[in-house]
Amino acid sequence: MSNSLFRRKDVKKAIEESKKGDDGHSLSRILGVRDLTTLGIAAIIGAGIFSTIGLASFNGGPAVSLLFVFVAIACVFTALSYAQFASMVPVSGSAYTYAYVSFGEVLAWIIGWALILEYAVSNMVVAISWSSYFIGMLEGFGIHFPMWLAIDYTSAKEAYEIVQAGGTDIALNTKTLAKAFADAPDLGFIKLIFNLPAGLVTVLITSLCYIGIKESRNASNILVALKLGVILLVIIVGVFYVKPANWSPFAPNGVNGVLSGVASVFFAFIGFDSISTTAEEAKNPQRDLPRAMLLCLLICTVLYVLITTVLTGMVNYTELNVADPLAYVFQKVGFDFVAGVISVSAVVAITSALLAYQIGQPRIWMTMSRDGLLGKKFGEIHPKFKTPSFATIVTGVLVAVPSLFFKMSFFVDLTSVGTFFAFILVCAGVLVLDTKGMSKDAKFKIPYVNAKYFAVPLLLVALYLTYREGDVMKHMEERPLLFVFWLVWLYLAAMSFKYNFSLLPVLGILTNLYLMTELGWSNWRMFIIWMVIGLVIYFAYGYQNSKLAKK
């Protein structure tokens, strides 16, 4: 049974099967480098640049621009591993497919199941964020949308109970939500409250993904062009209002202040993963996917660095802990027109991010179905639209329904762990295939630097710096996973001497594993529950129905 759990998919077979689906239809190859790069930018520059960038700047000061450089470098280690795999295995499925050819079936299932959760939850969060920005935009135009149709039931009820309890220090937003609860029509014993804009935008985006990749590509290109235009406008206009005095002190809260935003900033950069899901719709995937991944990371890094530099130069960093920092700074300098344009562009930015992720998830379902791990229905390609039709509809339902009724904080604990786990396996997969000599035919190769000359010295430096920061054992008690992190580093250092590992994938594994140690128990609890459900489904269906099992 052990051997069958770790049965691996042959790379050549995977490529052959992708050329013609089980139902006789294949996806349309119409995406070029520009389209793939645009898709990555759509996913990376979403709500974050209009909201969380403010909190990161507040904590880190002007030095937050260096945080984006640091995170981009950390992401490059993983992106390079993705790029090498994409040039070897130009098949949809992202990290799921890469794990299947390098580690075997059970780990591939775990990664695929994790990615299903990550993509779905990400889109729920994006849809709810879109609703908030959309309502704010309507208010800016003097249009008042009923709040009981734009909020979840739990948030409204909690706010109503707070107001009913009384008190003098009640936030304005809490009062607004309480009023929404009071105004909502009664449906028997319960109030009729749901987030209509979040559900509607998900349905509309899903419809666009259903009718064709060409239509989705055109919409994505237009939305990203508008978004980049606004960001460049903010940078160019903002430069004239920069006061160099605001850049001092450069790092008011030290390194810890800058790094406090590392997790949220890191997730702003993981959009390159969505590019790999469209491998079977790329014109020349082995050449174009690696180029697009690295190009979108470079463009987004430059934009993030420029915009944080301008932002912290226009106003003092202490003023940036607001929900809409870009609009705020232009209102502060009396440029209300630009602030209004930013509010509208935030809706555009989030729409493009939703589109990028909604394209990705059905293709993971499709690939898992093609391998026999899910029902054949998920692998169906629409004869006319050339899209994974059933999987797209299921994805839309799974995202739209929860976003109608649940509050955003409910989904926070469902994110993070699976993505880091997928990234670690992709980086490790490169090392495995390199060691077996299976990556010699890759069209793109990670620049080789022998890890055995660096792994041990870097480990000693890291341990010394940790010791200088305080009690090493106390750190491990507060974050037990740090013990695993140091053990993995020691193991990789030893294996680097034996197998001459490439340094960059090793750094990718360590970076992602370290960021995993930052996550709380609630993240792990939800991830473990989801994995248990997934393994039950795998052993009940996928293990027996796998194409490799039948062979």
Protein model, in words:
- With 551 residues, the protein is mainly alpha-helical.
- It folds into two domains: 2-137 and 200-446, Amino acid/polyamine transporter I; 153-193, no CATH class.
- It has helices at 2-5, 11-19, 33-44, 52-60, 64-88, 95-102, 105-140, 153-165, 172-183, 196-211, 213-239, 254-259, 262-268, 272-276, 285-314, 325-332, 336-370, 389-405, 408-412, 417-435, 455-469, 472-478, 481-499, 503-517, 521-545, 547-550; strands spanning 186-187, 190-191.
Count every beta strand, where a strand is a DSSP E run of 2 or more residues. 2
Strand order of the largest sheet: 1-2
What is CATH's topology name of the largest domain? Amino acid/polyamine transporter I
Please state the average pLDDT score. Answer: 82
Contiguous helical run count: 26
Shape: globular
- Percent helix, as a range, is over 70%
Structural class: mainly alpha
Termini, distance in Å?
15 Å
Oligomer description: single chain
Encode the helix/strand succession as letters: HHHHHHHHHEEHHHHHHHHHHHHHHHHH
Query: Do you know the CATH architecture of the largest domain?
Result: Up-down Bundle
Top CATH class of the largest domain: Mainly Alpha
Strand content: under 5%
Instruction: Write the CATH homologous superfamily of the largest domain.
Output: Amino acid/polyamine transporter I
Rg over CA atoms, rounded to whole Å, is 24 Å
Main sheet makeup: 2 strands, antiparallel
Low-confidence spans: pLDDT under 50, at least 5 residues? none
